[in-house]
Amino acid sequence: MTASERFFCSDAARIRGDSIVGTAPHGLVWVLIEYRGAWPANGFDGLDLAPTVKELVFTAAQAARARILLVRRHARPAREGPGRWAVLRYERSGAYRQQWGTWRCDEDLAEIVGALGAPGELGFPPVLLVCTHGRHDTCCAVRGRPVGRALSERWPDLVWECTHVGGDRFAANVVVAPDGVYYGDLDAKSSVTVVGEHLSGRIHAGYLRGYTDLFPPQQAAVAAALRRFGPAGRHDWAVADTSRDRGGWRIRLTGRPPHPTALDVEVRAYRTPPHQLTCRGPKMSSAIGYEVTSMRID
Predict the structure, then answer these.
(1) d(Cα 226, Cα 208) in Å, to the nearest integer?
(2) In a domain, 222, yes or no
């Protein structure tokens, strides 16, 4: 294959028109570890850390169902001093909690274990994570780096580049944490607009992959409500009930004014034809998509 014929999974997904709706992986807790060296293809798992410390952090993260991400600042001169780590936690009450620390040697990372068992603190600004993990998937770097640059120029203290967050074919991917909101298919210009609106309390359906506290059909229902009734705050729509219905799901949403107070949304799943879904994985795979078939105001 020549350079001009090189396969890029995000280009192929755009040509096919792959839907990003309902593709945010489920999760409420994130562990961030600033790592200034080269990121292994498998992220934290591939780091050459003291085995006992690595096992402690990994086991604690598994118990908390936390995703471990390596992070770094975009294109800043390498600074001396300790790296940072953080535990970010989304609570179903709507509270966002964070705990930050620093590390100089591997043993310092053991403090993450205690942080995972503690509630964390309120009052921190959100964290903007941009996947630029090129060793995991080429598109994450090709599309992610320009987005990381654009967002870092606008919000330098909030933005971190990070390792794999899922959905390589939807690069560039941005995660707002601990809000737990995934955006995809972004470029430098759209990312600044989308994130600016998000930070102003206005989440739009365009570019939204989903909320990580919801499961895929629920994410699709919320996205449909946003598309129909306009942008809304992170908690302006809530899932009140979910039930299986004729091979799909019936999802009841409750909204805050000026949105409808109750909305019944029917969602069905479908399977796409097999395609190559990542740059590095030549295996042909199908994906599951979600379609809203009806919406009724109650």
Answers:
(1) 10
(2) no
